[in-house]
């Protein structure tokens, strides 16, 4: 009889953003919202 054991440890650590990354992320989210609003308005016109 063979018993094989395998243990895995997963650790999550909160990632720190630099100021440039935070500004970039904010701009991406703003553009995404603008595009979503534009799609909704185009859909309502149809």
Note the main attributes of this structure.
single chain, mainly alpha, YrzI, YrzI family small protein
Could you please describe the fold and organization of this structure?
The longest helix has 27 residues, at 19-45. Helix content is 59%, strand content 0%. With 46 residues, the protein is mainly alpha-helical. The protein is built from one helix and no strands. The radius of gyration is 23 Å and the shape is elongated. The protein starts with 18 loop residues before the first helix and ends with a helix.
| Structural class based on helices, strands and sheet pairing | mainly alpha
| Terminal-residue CA separation | 69 Å
Main β-sheet: number of strands, strand sense, barrel status?
none
Helix content: 55-70%
Organism: Neobacillus rhizophilus
Protein name: YrzI family small protein
